[in-house]
Specification:
about 475 residues; alpha+beta; Cathepsin D, subunit A, domain 1; 2 domains; 7-stranded antiparallel β-sheet; globular; aspartic-type endopeptidase activity; disulfide bond; PEPTIDASE_A1; BA75_02869T0
């Protein structure tokens, strides 16, 4: 009898341990057009599992949005074709669309969905439609209910899975994809880790893959100076050429924003104008970047440089310049993804609240985003991260990582207060069923359902759009 009881106890423990070990979710990513990372697997939305393809991963925004069926049949404007690269019908054939009439679990709300990417009105690209909810599956992830934007007008394809903080949601405040994973019991902590290789990537929800980085992961707080997001303390920027230093600037109060949704990394022109011009590069005002005919000596001369970012005092990310030059086959030109700005300093100001680390920087870093503790953990990326053998550890509530040297600086900008969210009631025309919570406000909600900003924090988003169009 005692042996049987012991066996049952051990069996139960083993089952619980196995369940705990599997409590993370993984999405494989692919880099397309040298400009963005998309989820390898298709998304399936609604009770009838309508297919959505080539969904871009974006840590710089926070909403999941897809095309509504009505978009496919609508006339294509010149602006839509210029930005999206396809007619509306062709866009639906490439990316897929969603017909809410075919899903028994679909719920509309009375809330409009609208997101702008950019800051200057001339640079804005937008997506608009309605906030809705339905079941969503991708890979081995299944969510019974997820809010998302069902878009009827857009100049910002492909469809996007924004996984940033709730504070970055577009004019609304609800539990987005990472939070819903936790609410439905698929992960323990609202956290994820991102590894971007040269052609492939890996996104782990609720876990860390220790094989994807070199050295030690160090954590640093997310500082909400300026608009909300995932910016952290930037304490130094340097440019080297072999053993020679081109410049090395220590920063008293700078911030850098990690954004996987853009191919660019803007930096002050004063450090780069002379360098590019000296090697024969020309400035393109439309692209807001320097370019040169590929293969010229001036291109080769600049490829040996290395850009170094120092974060919170002792996290150093080195970015080879050869990774910041992209070839556009259509015109035979090589473009730098360092987008120069008129800013005179890396330090914080109202005009230039922070700098941006795009994909080419993130390919050289391993970043863990913990949205509950409002911290990032960062380390240099492993060599050839696409070829490493997995070493996965679950992120639990008591999981801890050493602090970076300057972790305690400017903590007045750090807040771990729970996000304010609203459960939006179904509209009078909605069909299907929705959870009993809908229409109520969570404990951490406020009476306002408007998030702090609906604008993605990219002062140079116009270049990003132009740049991606060149690569399509």
């Amino acid at each position: 009898m005692l042996q049987m009881q012991l066996f049952r106890i051990l069996l139960l423990f083993s089952l619980k341990l196995a369940a705990a070990e599997e409590k993370y979710k993984k999405l494989n990513l692919s880099r397309i057009n040298d400009s963005m990372y998309v989820v390898d697997a298709s998304f399936y939305v609604g009770s009838d599992e309508q297919q959505i393809n080539l969904v871009q991963i974006d840590t710089g925004s926070s909403d999941f949005w897809i095309l509504d069926k009505s978009f496919c049949d609508s006339p294509t404007s010149e602006e839509e074709e210029n930005h999206n690269g396809y007619s509306n019908q062709e866009s639906c054939e490439v990316y897929g669309s969603f017909d809410s009439n075919n899903s028994d679990t679909f719920q509309a709300t009375d809330r409009e969905y609208y997101i702008e990417y950019g800051i200057n009105s001339a640079d804005m690209i937008t997506s608009s439609g309605q906030l809705v909810s339905d079941q969503v599956s991708v890979g081995d992830i299944h969510l019974d209910e997820l809010y998302f934007g069902l878009v009827t007008n857009t100049t910002s394809l492909p469809p996007t899975l924004g996984i940033g903080p709730i504070s970055r949601e577009a004019n609304l405040s609800y539990y987005n994809f990472p939070y819903q994973l936790q609410r439905e019991g698929l992960i323990d902590v609202v956290a994820y880790s991102l590894s971007l290789g040269q052609s492939k990537g890996e996104l782990l929800f609720g876990a860390i893959d220790h094989s994807k980085y070199n050295g030690t992961l160090l954590k640093t707080p997310i500082l909400q100076a300026g608009s909300g997001g995932t910016q952290v303390l930037l304490t130094g920027v340097a440019l080297t050429n072999g053993s020679s230093s081109v410049f090395n600037e220590t920063i008293n109060e700078g911030y850098i924003y990690f954004d996987s949704g853009t191919p660019i990394s803007p930096l002050p022109a004063k450090h780069f104008d002379d360098l590019f011009k000296h090697h024969g590069w020309e400035y393109d005002r439309d692209a807001m970047s320097y370019l040169i005919e590929c293969g010229r000596e001036g291109e080769k001369s600049i490829l040996g440089h290395t850009l170094e970012y120092t974060i919170s005092g002792d996290i150093v990310i080195k970015v080879p310049f050869e990774q910041m030059v992209v070839t556009v086959e259509s015109d035979g030109k090589c473009y730098s993804t360092v987008a120069v700005t008129d800013d005179e300093s890396f330090s914080f100001s109202n005009d230039a609240p922070f700098f941006l680390a795009g994909d080419e920087v993130l390919r050289n870093a391993y970043v863990v985003y913990n949205l509950e503790t409002q911290e990032l953990a960062i380390a240099p990326a492993a060599n050839n991260p696409e070829e490493t053998e997995e070493d996965i550890e679950i992120i639990s509530e008591d999981f801890d990582i050493p602090k970076a040297k300057d972790y305690s600086k400017f903590l007045e900008y750090w807040s771990t207060a729970p996000p304010s969210v609203t459960d939006y009631a179904p509209s009078s025309t909605s069909s299907g069923s929705i959870s009993g919570e809908t229409g109520s406000t969570s404990e951490s909600s406020t009476s306002e359902d408007i998030a702090p900003s609906s604008v993605k924090p990219l002062t140079l988003w116009g270049f990003a759009v132009f740049f991606c169009q060149l690569l399509i």
